Amino acid sequence: MARKTNSTSTFESTRRRRRRDEDEVFSPEEQARFESMRSDDPADGPVDDGPPTGDRWSIWDESEPLQRGPKPWPEWLITDLGAVDYELGVLKTGKEADVFLIERAVPGTDRAVLMASKRYRSAEHTQFNRAGDYTAGRTARRTRDRRALAKRTKFGLEQAAGRWAAAEFEALTRLWETGVAVPYPVQILGTEVVMEFIGADRTAAPRLAEVKPDEVELESLWEQAGENLRLMTEQGFAHGDLSPYNTVVHDGRLVVLDLPQVVDIYANPLGRDFLARDVENLGSWFTARGLPRHELDDLAKELFAIARLA
Ligand SMILES: Nc1ncnc2c1ncn2[C@@H]1O[C@H](COP(=O)(O)OP(=O)(O)O)[C@@H](O)[C@H]1O
Ligand SMILES: [Mg+2]
Prior knowledge:
The chain contains eight helices and twelve strands. It is an alpha+beta fold and about 300 residues long. Strands 1-2-3-4-6-5 form a six-stranded antiparallel beta sheet. A two-stranded antiparallel sheet has the order 7-8. The radius of gyration is 24 Å and the shape is globular. The chain starts with 5 loop residues before the first helix and ends with a helix. Adenosine-5'-diphosphate binds near residues 92, 246 and 258.
């Protein structure tokens, strides 16, 4: 906060002195200012129980059972209470979220696992205006939440960020259980979604947009794209933002990312359009590399039939 100029502070202090009761230490204005500076976030408070190593204790046990990934838990998952999380760096910063590479490790052992941590932003400059279309079929259950969203208070923005995180975690969970190639959802805590890291060593897998497949690989990737879309459609989902930037390729496997805006194709009146757009946005990358156009149209038709939207 910028310091006040001398003239202002002299003026204010005179004014305050006049208003203040004899026995009050702080003026009402000062009280209010101190209140506004106080944070409700315990993470802002003094840290007196930090981990012996790492950047924080593992947040695993802070998530409720339903905020944790589906069972059976993969064998690489670390659930030890004594585990710590290390921040290894930023994988990508975005408009609505930042993705970090973290490592969860058990001190004194060689057990450690890399994970991706996607943290939704609640700051004013995020672009929640795009939310309208996607959330057409959803409702804010508690009026308090809805009012807060409308007022765009800090609480409201925090709620919105938390809702995006929850939507992504829920979609990852549903799709993982269905067999769609998505990162395993480890846990959600507030505005943070921790998931399987797709990559080798500390290097994230390249996005589809960045790979240069030969003819055979292209064929395989398109087949996988179709299979993932079929499975999603059977579950009543359109991705909502499918593209060569929201898919990565790891060891020849196509993995689908970025699911907070997942669309319920039955509840959303634009469901069919979202489905068609997903096929088009991903498929055009393939047609630009030699895939016959009719394959796109055939897939779109097949998906409409699955969803009975034909
Ligand atoms: N689980 C993950 N494993 C590896 N890389 C990831 C993972 N999740 C995200 N990324 C990387 O971060 C980028 C942004 O993630 P994404 O979920 O698409 O968020 P955004 O909303 O910012 O687009 C991805 O394109 C990918 O490169
Ligand atoms: Mg993305």
